[in-house]
Amino acid sequence: MDRDRLTALASAVWPPAATFAALLAMLEIASGAGWLPITVPPPSAVIAEFGTSGADLLYHVWPSILATVAGFAISALVAAGFAAVGASWRRAGGPVFTLGVLVDSTPLIAVAPILVAFIGGGMTLHVVVAAVACFFSILMGMMKGFRAVDRNSDELFHVLAASRWQRLVKLALPSALPFVFAGFKIAAPLAVLGTLIAEWMGAERGVGIMMIYAMFSFDPPQVWMTIVAVCLMAIGGYSLFAVAERAFLGWADRDEGRL
Amino acid sequence: MGGIELRGATKRFALPDRELTALDSIDMTIPEGAFAALIGPSGCGKSTLLRMIADVLQPTEGQIAVAGQPPKAARLSHRIGFVFQAATLLPWRTVRENVRLPLEIAGVTPRRSPEALIDLVGLHGFEDARPAQLSGGMQQRVAIARALVLEPSVLLMDEPFGALDEITRQRMNVELLRIWKESGTTAVLVTHSISEAVFMADTVHVLSANPGRLAGSVEIDLPRPRSLGQMKLPAFNALENAVRDLLFLDDRPAEQAPRRPKVAAVGS
Ligand SMILES: Nc1ncnc2c1ncn2[C@@H]1O[C@H](COP(=O)(O)OP(=O)(O)O)[C@@H](O)[C@H]1O
Ligand SMILES: [Mg+2]
Predict the structure, then answer these.
(1) Could you read off the pLDDT of A21-31 as tens digits, one per residue?
(2) Nearest CA to CA, how far is A144 from chain B (Å)?
(3) CA separation for the pair B162, B199 (Å, rounded)
(4) Burial of B44 (0-12, 13-18, 19+ CB in 10 A)
(5) 3-state SS assignment for residue B243
(6) ABC transporter domain: which residues (chain B) (predicted)?
(7) ipTM score assigned to the predicted complex
(8) pLDDT tens readout for residues A82-113
(9) Which residues on chain B are in Cβ contact (under 8 Å) with A166?
(10) pTM of this prediction?
């Protein structure tokens, strides 16, 4: 059984891994032959850059992670409040949804400079933009989750004379979790993106500002190193929730948590 | 004491454009420990009747008593067990945890352990399985065990085996009778099937539609314990026919032009 799962995992992992490795090898060869523009360094140079500027990268990545996590947490708290209102007071559902769409359709890259004028370019800005960037996905997951209790289960708890608290803890929350997690998984990379955009507008430390410095000092390997770092942050955020979901929601049918 | 009484029970629903009388003045007595079947065409109000007994809906007029109490009091004192057409198990709980749910909610320790009930419904060895790992019939058995765990005075079942194939269904019915006998509860079974109603019940109550009325009741005096062999007996067929006659009171030959029941013109 466990062995089967291991082979299944291996067969799921190796084709993309092999494709990726082949792509890197091709890039390396193309670069050596001089076929690539000078803005695209060979992969080996990017890997080497991790060695020489690794400490520098850590210095800049750390506040970015902090801003992303803080922005995500604030967004989740605010979204939980709105979703609870939207779910328990039916007429508020529409306006809450509209608010989510409004926030989501605001082009961050255009609004961030305006925000700079209000709150300056520091850590606060990064946190706020990260929060705004992931708000909609989190809100949608929670709103859908709070409505996920099916009518029969509701009737079952009524016949069992369950209290409000028992309903919340034993029915509403577990029913909501798959949807909440689906929202979180989509939201995590978006929060990373929000932090990055905010850091472009101005920061003393942050992977975004490091990227800008590297661009202006024309250091392609370092630019690419920051790009890879941002990708890893995004994938890391997603994976964190994916792993937590597997651990806590093993029961959930894969279809159930779809948004 | 543990029976069910309905006196003039009427249920009207307010629709946007009119009022719908789902059930009209139902009188019914189901003695303690008896097995009653409710049969009737779709939409005649069978589920509504069961929901009123379980205090999910309140009758517009009339009285209902469950074990000598109003339905609400009976529900709050956990005297009602309900089995839905869909098993309605919580997918994040194991079989054991699903059966235990009513105990957690009521905050009591049972005379009979959840494990014993899981044995009773024939699911020994599946205590730690999740609902998704069980077949439809097994899930419905878990739902029955869950409905019985608080030893309710009445067990209400709304087409519990409606989604199962004929063969599984007959097997489940035989088991259900055994479980019912052993638990001593008053049982009400809603069904679409005439033979199922006759096979299971002491009394079959036949409902007619538009509005839902009690067309009549047929006493089933077949000896217990019932066995599938009885279904071949002439006495069984005679009882089926008695139920069928009540169901198709206004029947006329299929070849004649149907005289449609007049439907009151509604709205503009
Ligand atoms: N909550 C409700 N609101 C409005 N109409 C309802 C409601 N519940 C049931 N009805 C109507 O009452 C009638 C009886 O329904 P139901 O009890 O479900 O019938 P059955 O279970 O016999 O098929 C149907 O016409 C149905 O549309
Ligand atoms: Mg029904």
Answers:
(1) 999 899 889 88
(2) 18
(3) 15
(4) buried
(5) helix
(6) 4-234
(7) 0.87
(8) 888 887 777 887 888 888 888 888 888 888 88
(9) 104-105
(10) 0.79
